[in-house]
Design a protein that fits this description.
Length: 91
């Protein structure tokens, strides 16, 4: 029987679900990338590992922003090519 390969790609509004990826990623090599607007507000947060890409689309509170900044990397641009499975970041 051939091995089945799965990938996870998603957009979530539930902070606890996204935070679960942040915590698990810290132990398993996943990364969080985020973008800020001109006022310093986080406008995009994406968790990425080799087989998972999860974007957080919910409200980003001050508490959430502190966690994202502490565990993530600020970038200027985040682009995902689903066909090729490539996450491109520009810092």
């Amino acid at each position: 029987m051939a091995a089945v390969s799965f990938r996870l790609e998603g957009e979530v509004k539930d902070w606890e679900l996204f935070y679960g990826y942040i915590k698990a990623g810290a132990e398993n090599g996943g990364k969080v990338f985020y973008r800020e607007d001109q006022n310093g507000n986080i406008v995009e947060a994406v968790y990425f590992s080799g087989a998972k890409k999860v974007a957080y689309t919910g409200e980003i509170t001050e508490e959430n922003a502190k966690i994202i900044r502490a565990s993530g990397y600020k970038v200027k641009e985040v682009n995902y090519n689903a066909e090729q499975g490539i996450l491109k970041i520009v810092q």
